[in-house]
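Entry 14. Structure prediction run on the chain below.
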Amino acid sequence: MKALNKMDNLDKGTLLSKLFPEELQNIQNAIEKQCDYFQQNEIAFREGWYQKGFFTAEFWYRLVENAHKAIGKNDRQLWKRPSWFADHLFDGHNSLFAVHCLLEYADTEDCNPDLKQAIHLLFGNEKLLQITSNK
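Output returned:
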């Protein structure tokens, strides 16, 4: 196994998936909820997007769509195969949305306390996307 500081998000997602296979369905559900949230609020988010450069609204919504498609394409059952789960959701740029979802999920009462600790150990606790209201 690699040292933690040598792991990329795919390595970390794979490790998390293998350590907590019983939590993968809950994580997948949390990712689906985030997909729904962003899709339902797309116009408002695009209008209020303040990130510049690489991390544009267009880029973010591509990540949302990639996660949504990966879950839908696999009959919403990625959680049954930890390796597939990590490969589909934590590979490359797609990991940015998955990590966002994990950090949001870790802040809920529904998140298993041990899983929450593992998420924070592996991915930190600093949000990737600061969501603020324009109102």
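The chain has a mean pLDDT of 90.
Filed with the rest of this week's runs.
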